[in-house]
Amino acid sequence: MTDTPPASPPDWPGQRLGLPETGPRSVGRFGRRLGALAIDWGIAVILSAAFFSYDSIATLLIFIGLQVLFTVVVNASPGHLILGLRVVPMEGGLLGVWRPIVRALLIALVIPPMLFDDNNRGLHDRAARTILLRR
């Protein structure tokens, strides 16, 4: 029996997936992800205040709706678009409809996006088999 040393952690998110450290196709870092989330939530708050007297349930439903609609149509939420990010399936191909729905519902639960792996993939991305990359 040979002793193998434990695998060392990657130098950057996405390294083990063959993705570059920086630039296009690199993994979206925490700051950009958080900024995109803030932008998306801000849009939901503005729409909720304008049309639903800033009802908390309406705000959450608007947020989920924006996430699903934009991710299905352009592979990115409004915040992702502004900050140069996009959602892609791990296997390649088309994103489809089910992945954005799963991602949005899990993001709305707050905790899943906060639990992420070495590739900055939160539980919501792992469940939907997606990854958030820079454009």
Automatic annotation (TrEMBL):
Domain of life, per lineage: Bacteria
Keywords from the UniProt entry: Cell membrane, Membrane, Transmembrane, Transmembrane helix
Pro residues bias spans: 1-12
Subcellular location: Cell membrane
Transmembrane regions: 34-54, 60-85, 97-116
Topological category with respect to the lipid bilayer: Multi-pass membrane protein
PANTHER family: PROLINE-RICH ANTIGEN HOMOLOG, PROLINE-RICH ANTIGEN HOMOLOG-RELATED
Predominant subcellular localization, coarse grouping: membrane
Domain called RDD: residue spans: 30-128
Pfam families, A to Z: RDD
Organism the protein comes from: Microcella frigidaquae
Name of the molecule in the record: Putative RDD family membrane protein YckC
